[in-house]
Amino acid sequence: MRGNNAIKISDSIFWVGVQDRETDLFEGLWNLPNGIAYNSYLITGDVNILIDTVKDQFIDSFLTRITRVLSGRPLDYVIINHMEPDHAGALSIVKRLYPGVKIVGNAKTAEMARDFFDINDNVITVKDGETITLGTRAFTFALTPMVHWPESMAAYEVTGKTLFSSDIFGGFGATEGGIFDDEADLELVTGEMMRYFVNIVGRFADPALKALAKIKPLDIRMICPSHGPVWRRDPAHVVGLYEKWSRQETDDGVVVAYGSMYGNTKAIAENMARALSENGVSRVSVYDMARSELSIVATDIWRNAGLLLASCTYNMELYPPMARLISHLENKNMKGRHVGLCGTYGWAGTSLSVMSDFVERGKGKWKLVEPKLSIKTSPKGDEFEMIELLASNMAAAVKRQ
Ligand code: FEO
Fold first, then answer.
1. Same domain for 258 and 224?
2. Which residue minimizes the CA distance to atom 2 of ligand 1?
3. Ligand 1 in contact with 152 (CB < 6 A)?
4. Residue ID of nearest Cα to ligand 1 atom 3
5. What is the pLDDT of residues 72-116, one digit of tens each?
6. Which residue, of 186, 213, 246, is where some domain finishes?
7. What is the pTM of this model?
8. CATH assignment of the domain containing 314
9. Residue 316 burial (10 A CB sphere; 0-12, 13-18, 19+)
10. Count of other CB atoms within 10 angstroms of residue 315
11. How many CA atoms lie within 13 A of 130 on its CB side?
12. Using CA atoms, how far apart are residues 212 and 165, in angstroms rounded to an integer?
């Protein structure tokens, strides 16, 4: 019977994770239309070592995989690269099942193991750059704080040149049968990986660059992240992608995001999009913020050099779906992109001032493209020309990138 069997990924390494096709919202926030994989790896030999666990909801199939591989042998160590419950959720159950198991983490892991699970014993702590031997197997650890939590780290298995990278190089999307990069639909994988990077890790793009600086010098034959496929054909490809995203390098496209109650602001956004195309911008995407998945919009904004925001005012404040977008962009600490603003109103012109405050608070992170527009109800007279001017200035700005 194959159901709940482990998947062999090398002579002594088995994938023992789970595919989550049931959770609707990751972190209670982000849609999972393609599910998500929680990868855990079991290394067998003179000692048996588990790398991370899974979300506790899936404990049954997870333990079935482990016990089938071990066939009565003990589990000796669990390396915990990350304590977020999508990976460490089953730790206390594993410890109860294998009372002699030793947990390997860093000082912050040990603190979190106490806080989350009241685990105080059998914890081995490692430092950044330290190499330890578990049985005959050597591991070097790279602490990668804030990618994605303070205790996050990556474990490099020296003999097999295998990097267990945790959230780094991970993505949304359950594995569709193909567990390796050479078996997977890489277009889907890359899209979901970038959506994970931007929305889960993006705020920590600078720490991600520091983590990459530690990882890149390693001689890596295979990358085993805690989400998404195992990268065995071309690990350097995924490292390059991550570097580009962490540096916030952009393509020369423009996102037009709007908030509109009765269609007047929508018409402005459509005019902007048309004018961008007429001015030679080939990548233009238009999003109605009341109906668009925030994580998809944010990913597109991360990818592109230009952003045009057009929003109505609502009860003398910024229209709530646009306020949510701005709050998310601010939280993600995006920088280096061009932004143009158009606020609309019926009687109290609040939307432009709130969006302007957002740009000013960024202290240079956003490069303002003029003119800023404030339009009462719907455009009239030369306001149409001003909309086109804003779009053509944006087109020129992204082409200069
Ligand atoms: Fe996949 Fe930060 O947990």
1. no
2. 148
3. no
4. 84
5. 999 999 999 999 999 999 999 999 999 999 999 999 999 999 999
6. 246
7. 0.95
8. 3.40.50.360
9. exposed
10. 9
11. 14
12. 10
